Amino acid sequence: MRKFFDDITAITGNVVKVRATGVAYDELAAITTNRQTSLAQVIRLEGDEVSLQVFAGTQGVSTGDKVRFFGKPMQVPFTENLMGRIFDGAGRPRDGKPEITDDPIPIGTPPINPTRRLLPSKMVRTGIPMIDVFNSLVESQKLPIFSVPGEPYNELLARIGLQAESDVIILGGMGMRHDDYLTFRNAFEAGGVLGRTIMFIHTASEPVVECLMVPDLCTTVGESFALQGKRVLVLLTDMTAFADALKEIAIIMEQIPSNRGYPGDLYTQLARRYEKAVDLDGAGSMTILAVTTMPGDDVTHPVPDNTGYITEGQFYLRGGWIEPFGSLSRLKQQVNDKTRDDHRAIMDACIQLYAGARESREKKAMGFEPSQWDLKLLKYGELFEKRIMDLAVNIPLEKALDECWEILAECFEPHETGIRRAIIEKHWPKKLNDKSQQSQTVTTDAKD
Amino acid sequence: MPGKIAAVFGNMVTVELEQEVTQNSVAYCCRADGRRLISEVIRVRGSQADLQVFEETRGLRIGDRVEFTDEMLSVVLGPGLLGQVYDGLQNPLSKVALQEGYFLTEGVYVHALPTDIEWDFTPAVEVGQEVTAGDTLGTVPEGIITHQIMVPFHLRKKLTVEKIAPAGKYTVEKEIAVLKDESGQEISVTMEQRWPVKVPLNISEERLLPTEPLVTKIRIIDTMFPIVKGGTYCIPGPFGAGKTVLQQLTSRHADVDIVIVAACGERAGEVVETLRRFPELIDPRTGKTLMDRTIIVCNTSAMPVAAREASVYTAVTLAEYYRQMALDVLLLADSTSRWAQAMREVSGRLEEIPGEEAFPAYLESRIAGFYERAGVVRLKDGRIGSVTIGGTVSPAGGNFEEPVTQGTLKVVGAFHGLSRERSNARRYPSIDPLDSWSKYTGIIEPKKVAEVHNILRRGNDVKQMMTVVGEEGTPIEDFTIYLKSEFFDNVYLQQNAFDEVDGATEADRQRFVFDKCLEIIRLDFEFESKDQARQVMFYITDLFRNWNYAPMDSDEFKKILAEIDEIIATKGKLVKEALVK
User: Fold this and answer.
1) For residue A119, which residues of chain B lie inside 8 Å, CB to CB?
2) B108 within a domain of the structure (yes/no)
3) Do the Cβ atoms of B377 and B424 come closer than 8 Å?
4) pLDDT digits (tens, 9 = 90+) for A12-65
5) Are residues B132 and B222 in the same domain?
6) Which of A25, A283, A306 faces B57 most closely, judged by CB atoms?
7) Within 13 Å and on the Cβ side, how many CA atoms surround B230?
């Protein structure tokens, strides 16, 4: 049953008010102007006045335009045919292929019952040592990448998408530059994963309301695949754009802002999306990695701050690499005891020594004379950055652990690393050890 | 006559009234598809009432029917609560899962207590006996405790027992007694009763001053910033500082009868951790699993916001119920900031004039009202019960100057402030030893605690000075104080949560180790150089750390103790000599 209403009483920002009856909260509508038809969502009911958030913006909307209500909330098709397809924030194809209308499901499903969740237990290997060794990513984890604008966060996200083990990849772009969208598409195509990738892309030039839909579209589709037993990886970039879109709508709706103009329910809005990450008892899983750009490199900004309280850790991307100190994977303890017996020891020792290396560097910069120990640390810091921290390094976990041992052996005596003796005896590179006993100077080229 | 929906905005519904309503009474919004969404009346203006809906409001229409009840939002109390996982409205989640599968569907409400279990009832009164609210009618064994079936708390008159069921097996819905009031009206009593969550439940002779320490086996808490049974405390901290780990450790080791975990607006994963691990962990006090003494009330961040507020009150009401049985109950609320944010959201939709950071003006009185529900009471029969409340606070940007932290600090008895600096330096638990405070007296003599506190403060001052004048410019006396404060921090304040022995330190051991630490701190080592001072103190630190890992009274423990005593007796002579070599 289609109903038309044409008594538009107010147009402000992206919101249109129309007199209508029999409308349900959160229902989807379409508003037809003389230029285009745009989707809209009911965000407030007050007597016979309905507030609609118009996806395409209210430019060119006339008080005489027609509004049609669909009698159902926003939906997204769910079928295998989604694989390899690219859509916009309103769910329209942006790859020139036909629209999909099969099996629509409403977006924004109820929360998962906590008793049907599993304890996360499976590591997701990415080939990036700073993640695999030091802050392991775990299936069903929700993890943001905190990044200063300018850092190669999209490249990192694309690489994780390409290399992480998963059945379905869903990319959600919010406020994305068109170039970045093309970069992602090309990267996934070249990597041969486009066939199991679904993209929902909102670019910066498109209406802001469509940006709000992207996380829900991604997680709704992802959740449905997870319920079928698939391992889903959702990549979102950039959640700060999403939060800014929320702010814009909230201010138009005359809500009282709480912190730097953001609405009081920012935490709830973000949490509802991130909490979709899940390992289902008896089905699949959904892992969410999301970029959060930090305005002014300020982690106390409301968006990264609220995000940090919601997610299970964070990766800091700073100066071109994943910062070892602020970064944290809260779930790593669940998996890094099952990989290799030296994993935790290497993880602790390498970071502690690297912290020492930074201190020595500071000392040196302040003009103090470096001690013998400082010199060792300085050398270690350099090698560690070059062979482990550099984002170009692409090796499996076991290789990365071996590489860490090599670096340690090139720089230190076994007892200086603070690693337990039993583990040293088992893993300390033998050949190098002999060499270093023969002469104090160790050649950096140890691979011959 | 029911009312009709006149407006919907977020989780707020305005209803055109056609009947009388009671403030805070429960109402149901009837959706077109037949689902009834539970709501609460939070404001009445003229012929309109504002309701907060405890579910998503998607699909509600103008003109939809609203049914009002005259009951306030209540919980069901009775045997079978222990070991349950509830949502904020006391729906048992495992039963909901059996019925609904993976999702928490709107409008699905399940009875909070198992109705199929037959409890072994033993009567405790006789026909003709006079009773009043809260008196024990009989008992049933509920896992680790003896659950008292009490005269319904809302019956505030003198009553006479007309009928009492003989010993035997009954379900919670079976009548176990009939009481008669003075007007001759008969009241049928079952094992379950209801109580409104926002009304404090306290039927006792008097409230006592809380003094008995509540041992958490976390050294920095028990020794430095103690909590007591019936007291209150809060844990504010930035994200990643270890609030939740601290709460989980407390829920495991705290020396109380019952622990109620209110996961309010936090990650579902943390609830999963508790509900999957606790059934496997044995409680040394009872020999049963930890789950047997635990109730989880969870409204995780993805669940409807309005129910977040309810979850905190639901949890505290359950705690008060068990206090009526003369038990010691610990309520851990994680996090009260999310509860405050829920209030802020509702207040914003009501278009109330906002206070600081858009929080409502009544924020502080609500927080105070919640913490005031803690306390130790002497019941009518002289027995003592207590409710202790520990709440975490998640301040925006880790800044303690915000309204929720400040509102909480005014009303709690202890403050365990977590610091980002300490957690970054991997000094766990990251409770800041200089900023935190407690108004209670713990297991260690306050004079001794003050002495250590003084050393920590002075050590910190010296450390600050050293960043300016360098180690060279610091006198050796000051340097030694700094080393001693570091020593105490390292071996006593820090604790390895993942180690079986070090992770939980009994009160006796704390007293013993603390005294030994104090002896070291008081000792004049007569150091000759800073290098020597550092090396000796490092050695002693290492010794104490290994001591912490040794089980009490094991051979290893005694061996290290002997060495420590030797150091104290000789002022570290042997260590100094060994280091020269």
Assistant:
1) 272-273, 276-277
2) no
3) no
4) 988 999 999 999 999 999 999 888 888 999 999 999 999 999 988 888 899 989
5) no
6) A25
7) 17
Instruction: Answer whether A91 touches B (CB < 8 Å).
Output: no
Kindly state whether residues B289 and B328 are assigned to the same domain. yes
Q: Which domain holds residue B382?
A: 204-438
Please check whether residues B383 and B263 belong to one and the same domain: yes
Q: Are B137 and B176 in contact (CB under 8 A)?
A: yes
* Both tokens assigned to A18: 């129309």
Q: Is residue B106 part of a domain?
A: no
8 A C-beta contact, residue A16 and residue A61: yes
Taking a contact as any Cβ pair under 8 Å apart, which residues of chain A between 222 and 251 contact chain B? 227
Same domain, B310 and B331: yes
- Residue B158 token pair: 């003198």
Interface touch A280/B102, C-beta < 8 Å? yes
Residues of chain A contacting B545 with CB distance shorter than 8 Å: none
Is the same domain home to B379 and B271? yes
Residues B176 and B209 in one domain: no
Chosen domain end from B411, B438, B465: B438
Q: Which residues, 6+ apart, have CB-to-CB distance to B357 below 8 Å? A: A258, A259, B396, B402, B403
Q: How many structural domains comprise chain B?
A: 4
Question: Do B419 and B518 sit in the same domain of this protein?
Answer: no
- The reply to whether B33 and B133 lie within a common domain is no
Report cis status (omega within 30 of 0) of the bond before B429: yes
Cross-chain CB nearest to A110 (options B14, B103, B358)? B103
Token readout for A385 is: 């950055």
Flag whether residue A297 sits within 8 Å of chain B, measured between CB atoms.
no
Contact B403, B347 (CB under 8 A): no
CA distance B15 to B453: 58
- Cα–Cα distance for residue pair B567/B579, rounded to 1 Å: 14
Closest CA to B75 of B260, B348, B300: B260
Distance CA B486, CA A191 (A): 53
CA A43 – CA A23 distance, rounded (Å): 11
Domain end marker among B132, B164, B191: B191
Is the CB of residue A423 less than 8 Å from the CB of residue A345? yes
Quickly tell me which residue has 């089980």 as its tokens: B551
Ramachandran angles phi, psi of B40, nearest 5°: -135, 140
| pLDDT over 60 (residue A436) | no
Structure confidence by residue, pLDDT tens digits, B197-222: 999 999 999 999 999 999 999 999 99
Which of B33, B56, B62, B261 would you mutate first to test chain A, the one with the most A CBs within 10 A?
A: B62
Choose among A246, A274, A271, A273: nearest CA to A260.
Answer: A246
What was the ipTM of the complex prediction? 0.88
| Contacts (Cβ under 8 Å, ≥6 apart) of A228 | A283, A284
Residue B100 within any structural domain of the chain: no
Report if residue B86 sits inside a domain.
no
Q: Residues with Cβ < 8 Å from B387, sequence gap 6 or more?
A: B230, B316, B319, B320, B323, B329, B330, B331, B373, B374, B375
Residues in A touching B62 (Cβ below 8 Å): 21-23, 45, 47-48
CATH number, residue B21: 2.40.30.20
Residue B267: alpha-carbon gap to chain centroid: 16
Residue of B102, B239, B424 with shortest CB distance to A112: B102
The answer to whether the CB of A370 falls within 8 A of the CB of A364 is: yes
Average pLDDT of the segment spanning B391-407: 92
Nearest alpha carbon to residue A336 among A90, A190, A125: A125
pLDDT in tens, B319-365: 999 999 999 999 999 989 999 998 988 888 888 888 888 899 999 99
Take residue A145 and report the two structure tokens written for it. 């990448």
Burial of B340 (0-12, 13-18, 19+ CB in 10 A): buried
Phi, psi of B31 (to 5 degrees): -80, 155
Question: Smallest Cα–Cα separation from B11: which of B43, B47, B46, B37?
Answer: B37
